[in-house]
Amino acid sequence: MDPRLPPLNALRTFVMAARTGSFVKAASELSVTPAAVSRSIRSLEDFLGCSLFHRMHRKTSLTHEGRIYFESLADIFDRIALATQGLVGQRADRPLVICAYPSFIVSWLVPRWSRYLQTHPDVQLRIVTTLSHDVSFETKNIDLAILSDSVDDPRYISTSLFETTLIPVCRPDYLPPGTLTGDIEDWQSALLHCDTRPGDWDRWSKANGVFVDTTRGQWFENASMMYEAAMSGLGIAIGIKDLLSREFSSNRLAAAFRDNVEIVCRFCVIRPATTETHPFFPTFMKWLQNEVQAGST
């Protein structure tokens, strides 16, 4: 290693900690412990002979030297990742890696998968799940993500795929017939939530003019688990309407309220610019758009 250069891993840790403003968040992004982040940054500070962070209780901030250093290094790893993805993405033997929530994969993507394979038998795809809207494209080699709502990040391209709506759902016999949104005392203790979309009940209550205590109820790691809980009669979930067509047709779930005001929910295809060069991306994107245009959502 060039003695004039600090360890590359320590630089990467510093950039991530500076970007997120937290050793804990940086540790999560890098899949290490906060202690490992702290040690790595301390070693970099020893190498440089200056402090890069002010360390306070549960909070860190850049020193003057740290801010100058970060401004010089902020985009270096992004450029390395983009250059690498651009090169690797040209290889026809590398699968196109697609990321989405488990509920979208199971309810929307998989039922349509056979149609894609029939027309593109030689295309190699890999599907992975996420439980967060914050997808680490570069660090996890993900080419594109299909997520509800767009990502407000200039590093990524976001293309609208289709719009659906959010509605409260439950087992058909869970609520008395004719229950209205205003009958709050009859149902607000039975809210079901999921970590992947934590603000849905708040959005729904504002749109419907109903003041619900959204801190009440049961929480689940993802929407698929939440829907299963609703089908088991454990309460009322906020559902993405077009992902529940099988549950509605089989009478396992139904709209909870007849006077419900539905909320628009948009799905987008989000990816780094280098994904555009992947040989499998154009055909996959065209297939997605054709599925939507054919009215199969």
UniProtKB/TrEMBL annotation:
**Record-annotated HTH lysR-type domain positions:** 6-63
**Which PROSITE patterns does the record cross-reference, listed alphabetically?**
HTH_LYSR (PS50931)
Classification via InterPro entries: LysR-type_TF_proteobact-type (IPR058163), LysR_HTH_N (IPR000847), LysR_subst-bd (IPR005119), WH-like_DNA-bd_sf (IPR036388), WH_DNA-bd_sf (IPR036390)
Tell me which SUPFAM superfamilies the record gives.
Answer: Periplasmic binding protein-like II, Winged helix' DNA-binding domain
Keyword tags: DNA-binding, Transcription, Transcription regulation
PANTHER family per record? HTH-TYPE TRANSCRIPTIONAL REGULATOR, HTH-TYPE TRANSCRIPTIONAL REGULATOR TRPI
Q: Which family does it belong to?
A: Belongs to the LysR transcriptional regulatory family.
- Record protein name field: LysR substrate-binding domain-containing protein
